[in-house]
């Protein structure tokens, strides 16, 4: 479903009767609230049963593309492999993780010091990729993460936070922070920032994410 298709969807009539009051109160809060919207409480049907800290795992949902960055001998080809992986990571983080037919939901805010770890199994000989995350700030929410693939001799570490505000009928989330990818065998580093997000469809109870703004990528050998 494209963004234009999603913009036509209205799910208000599907809200459970016992939650319509909470939804209306939430919309009124959005209209009058000033400050960081991450502190607002969403109605239960708009909440995802996961913590925001878990979202960092999606940076390496495609471990084969992640491990492939270091393989080319040509540095230009390595940059192209990086961009291919980066696009796949954005898709995993903000699109494909939402099940077909469902809509974006707000994850729970992690508590300070909360930790999360997991491992992506090897795909096509990529080797396992380990993910470690920790919530290093609660207000504003900031997550630090460290990802490594020992077989490919690659590490990815960084931090990410969000500053949200309401603009027109949409919620804008400016992502702050940066990440550093290191190819140990190449003595090569990629520093990059994150795009902003715009959440549309809130007033229709059918929120979806659109990536906006600019990401910067800098390579150094």
TrEMBL record:
**Which family does the UniProt entry place this protein in?**
Belongs to the OSBP family.
Q: What is this protein called?
A: Oxysterol-binding protein
Please tell me one Gene Ontology term that the record gives under cellular component. membrane
Report the Gene3D superfamilies cross-referenced here: 1.10.287.2720, 2.40.160.120, 6.10.250.1430
UniProt GO molecular function? oxysterol binding
Q: Which Pfam families match?
A: Oxysterol_BP (PF01237)
- Enumerate the InterPro entries for this protein: OSBP_sf, Oxysterol-bd, Oxysterol-bd_CS
PANTHER family, alphabetized: OXYSTEROL-BINDING PROTEIN HOMOLOG 4-RELATED, OXYSTEROL-BINDING PROTEIN-RELATED
